[in-house]
Hints:
Elements: E1 4-8, H1 14-21, H2 24-30, H3 33-43, E2 49-56, E3 59-68, E4 85-91, H4 101-115, E5 120-123, H5 130-138, E6 142-149, E7 152-160
Parallel strand pairs: 4-5
Antiparallel strand pairs: 1-2, 2-3, 3-4, 5-7, 6-7
Helix pairs in contact: 1-3, 4-5
Amino acid sequence: MSRYQFLPMSAADLPLVRRWLAAPHVTQWWGDPDEQFGLVSEDLEQPAMDQFVVTIDGRPFAYLQCYDQRAWPDNGLGIHPPGTRGIDQFIGEPDMTGRGHGSAFIRAFIVDLMRAGTPRALTDPDPTNARAIRAYERAGFRKDRMVDTPDGCALLMVCDA
């Protein structure tokens, strides 16, 4: 059993997520914290988006969102099998970065998704974010191709069941 838990995010978690989004190591890749906070907050009401606070041994340290990629057809990620889910994540607590948690909790989440019948998971990190790309590869994703998204050029990575 994984030490990681994926707790469904609620409005009560928004102050924590706001703090994380303002951390320099998060803004480097996620961008303007106010803009991102607005999007994350709005997504609480989005039925095609599942949001989680990730904990280890009861300590919250990361954010993960998992979405039905068909709900955003203009996302630039292309056509994929029905049931495909996209994920995005970040580690919010600075002292938890660089310790292997990223790849470990992503892998734990993906294993659960695949066991539940998801045929494919996608993610699209910035192509210059070497740390994220390595974490996704260690979690079972493979590089697919470069894509143009509304947020700019990204590396499409896939993980198939």
